[in-house]
Amino acid sequence: MPNNFEITTAGAQDIAVLGEWAHEEGWNPGLADGGVFFATDPGAFLIGRLDGAPVSSVSVVRYGDDYGFLGFYLTRPELRGRGYGMRTWRAGMARLSGRTIGLDGVPAQQDNYRRSGFRTCWSNARYEGTVPPGLAPPPGTVLADARTLPFDRLAAYDRRFFPAGRDTFLASWITAPRHVALAALDDGGVQGLAVLRPCRDASRIGPLYAASPQVAAALVSAVAAGAPGAPRAAVAIDVPDVNAAAVRLAGELGLSPSFDTARMYAGPEPVIDRSGLYGVTSLELG
Predict the structure, then answer these.
(1) Residue 89 DSSP symbol
(2) In this structure, are residues 197 and 33 in contact, taking their beta carbons and an 8 Å threshold?
(3) Confidence of residue 237 (pLDDT cuts 50, 70, 90)
(4) What are the residues whose beta carbons fall under 8 Å from the beta carbon of 149, sequence distance 6 or more?
(5) Side-chain half-sphere of 138: how many Cα atoms within 13 Å?
(6) Tens of pLDDT along 20-49?
(7) Sequence-separated (6 or more) residues with CB below 8 Å from residue 268
(8) Is the Cβ–Cβ distance between 180 and 226 less than 8 Å?
C-alpha cells in the first residue's frame, strides 16, 4: 500500500462528492441529502485520499450509545481491488466499535459483509412508478403536515421503527428543502408518517410508517402529489420483505421492483415494529 494514501474526516464539499458517486452507482440520492446527513453526525463520513484526491468512502453514523449505521461504502471503479476500500472500511468499523451496526447492502457486496460478521435480516426491494392520486385514509383519520406536530410526539413515533433515537436527523429530514412530510392522525394519536424527498430520478419516499395498508396508501398518494412534476412524477419506495402487507401494497399501487438490497446487522438484531414499516428511510443512514 503506498504511503500517499490517507483516511480523513469528510468536509461539506466531500459530502457533495459522495452524492455524485452514489448517483454514478445508480442509487438515486436525494437532492438535499448532503446537508441533512452531515448535520446528523459530522464526524461520520470518512474519505480515503490518494495523493490528496478522494478515492474511497464510508459513512459510519452513531445513533445513541449502542447503535450505528454504515453506508456510502464506495471506491472509485478504476481503483478497486487495491486495498483502499478495505482500509477505509476498517477505519469506519473502528468508529462503531462496541455497537450493533446496520447496513443496507447491494447484492455484489453481501458476501463481503458476511465475512465481516454481518447477517442478513431481511431484503428491501425498491418499487418505482406513478401512484394513483387522491387515495383516502380510513374514516376518522386525517393527514397533516408533520412539521406542525409537537416534535416529541413525532420522534417517539419514529423510535418505534428505528433502533435508536435520531432527533437531529428527523428534525432536519422533515424540514429539508422541497421535502414533503405528512403524518396520519386520529384520536388515538399518530397512525403513520411519510416523507418524500426529490432525487435525481424518481422521488423517494421514506420513511413510510403506517398502522394499516390503507393509511400507507393514503400517505403515499398525498406525498406523491408534492413531488416535482406531479401528478405524473415517478416515486420510489424501499420496501422491506418482512412486511408482507407492504409488498402487496406496492404491487397494488402499480409500482414495479427495480433495485435490491439486504438489511444486515453485526451484533444483536434490534427489535422494531416491522408490521408498521412500509418503507425504510434511507439506504445511506438507515
Answers:
(1) H
(2) yes
(3) very high
(4) 183, 185, 190
(5) 13
(6) 998 898 889 999 999 999 999 999 999 999
(7) 100
(8) yes
In 3-state terms, what secondary structure has residue 214? helix
- Tell me the C-alpha distance between 215 and 281, whole Å: 17
State the DSSP code for 230. T
The string of DSSP letters for 55-108 reads EEEEEEEEETTTEEEEEEEEE-GGGTTSSHHHHHHHHHHHHTTTSEEEEEE-GG
3-state secondary structure string across 19-49: HHHHHHCCCCCECCHHHHHHHHCHHHEEEEE
- What average pLDDT does range 55-63 have in this prediction? 97
Q: Which of 24, 112, 106, 7 is nearest to 59 (CA)?
A: 7
Give the pTM: 0.95
Which helix (H) or strand (E) element contains residue 247?
Answer: helix 244-252
Whether the per-residue pLDDT at 122 is higher than 80: the answer is yes
- Beta-carbon neighbour count of residue 32 at 10 Å? 19
Over range 255-259, report the average pLDDT. 95
Angle at 74 between CA 198 and CA 54, to 5 degrees: 95
Under 8 Å between Cβ of 199 and 162 = no
Residue 232 confidence (pLDDT): 85
CB 178 within 8 A of CB 228: yes
**Helical (H) or strand (E) element with 115:** helix 110-115
Amino acid at 286: G
Rounded CA-CA distance 238/125 in Å is: 5
